[in-house]
Amino acid sequence: MTANSTLRTGHIGLNVTGIDRSLAFYRDLLGFEVLAEGGEGGEGGHRHAFLGREGRLAVTLWQQAEEGYAPARAGLHHLAFQVDTMDEVRALEAELAARGVAFAYDGVVAHGEGAASGGIFFHDPDGTRLEVYAAAGADTAPAPHPAAPTCGFF
Q1: Is 42 left (phi over 0), alpha (psi -120 to 50) or beta?
Q2: Does pTM surpass 0.85?
Q3: Measured between alpha carbons, how far apart are the two ends of the chain, in Å?
Q4: What is the pLDDT along the chain (154 residues), one digit of tens a residue?
Q5: Is 17 exposed, middle or buried (0-12, 13-18, 19+ CB in 10 A)?
């Protein structure tokens, strides 16, 4: 691969403990479409689901984990989704709160002291850390960790 090659994230694959619970979260709360599902059914079966928007794959769920997310292990730190406006972040925050999702911080927070970008931070059913943010609109929001990126320590 050369420096001139176009390399970008294609999709994120997450191991989950229960596909039905995770599907409900990512589909019903975050608005992803189920593009395809498959795998072995039944107790302990390895099932999977491909999720996206407008037909474009974004997240795959793989039912093959026996335990929830563990932040102390090497691997995924958090998964961030970007939206266009802070109004979209706040609308999702209200929907998640109405459904009982707990947040790492109260309300929208800036990515750092004085940063225009910011968002909300929460966990999926298996404890995977998630962020939804906008590039602008958090100018007056607090920064929970003034000396470090907000997304680094939740």
Answers
A1: left
A2: yes
A3: 34
A4: 677 788 888 999 999 999 999 999 999 999 999 999 998 765 667 899 999 999 999 999 999 999 999 988 999 999 999 999 999 999 999 999 999 999 999 999 999 988 999 999 999 999 999 999 999 999 999 999 878 899 888 8
A5: middle
